[in-house]
Design brief:
Blueprint lengths: L1 H5 L5 H32 L3 H6 L6 H4 L2 H4 L1 H7 L7 E5 L7 H8 L4 E6 L7 H16 L1 H4 L2 E5 L14 E7 L2 H7 L2 H11 E12 L7 H7 L4 H10 L3 E6 L29 H7 L4 E7 L2
Parallel strand pairs: 1-2, 1-4, 2-3, 4-5
Antiparallel strand pairs: 5-7, 6-7
Helix pairs in contact: 10-12
Length: about 290
Amino acid sequence: MNSLRLQHSPSRNTLSRRTPLLLAATLLLSATLLLGACQNGAQHADPITAATQGEHRTAAFVARDVWRHPVETLTFFDIEPDMTVVEIWPGAGWYTEILAPLLRDQGKLYAAHFDPDTPVPFFRRSLVAYQDKLAERPAIYDQVTLTVLAPPAHTAIAPPASADRVLTFRNVHNWASAGSAEAAFSAFHAALRPGGILGVVEHRAPSGRSLDEQIASGYMTEEYVVALAEAAGFELLESSEINANPADSADHPEGVWTLPPSLRLGDTDREHYLAIGESDRMTLKFRKP
């Protein structure tokens, strides 16, 4: 019994002195482990996600990720960093900001933009602004090769059968309006290697809408786009609802341009159209046999 009473136990004062030290050590260890986990996660983030998180991206472009779903869309199109990709009519470079750093070290990006000799002032301004954008950030864009797509006259968007992927985002209605959609899709087919993928995102019209109605509204039917691709020699592999917007009726006074970002009606019903958001879009994946 006496031996039991002689065993030493820490006093309450000793424990109270040790508790803050133990707590501090535990917090420091936890913070170190958390930081290591975050750094490890950043180092092993998938390349597409990493490219979308680049500090170089334009803030207004990033704000539209919620409607354009770039990570999901490029993943659906099976984009890899070592591929040769042709971006069709890149406009202000929304997707270029993601594709250029993604492909810079291992792959190749061709940007098939407007004809520099075009008589259309908007096309000329857009091309110059895009060229300036590339020149301002050579560490990101110096490996981008500019080509021209102005069907049917200019269709050499990349060396023949060289591309793994050809991507077009919301452009089909423009070619349909100009009567050059067939020539554009033939250019895509010529640039792709056998087995290569054509990825199409386009404003979606309800089935059965006439071609004239499609052109006037800017919304195209999936049937029309699939028929164009198949006539050019592609086969439809898969469709996705990644870029669907059920709130969009595809029936507006100024067509698709009624919705953001265009908001062609100005302040008229502005909040209503902002609440709808950007257009409902088809996302289609085709293969060149």
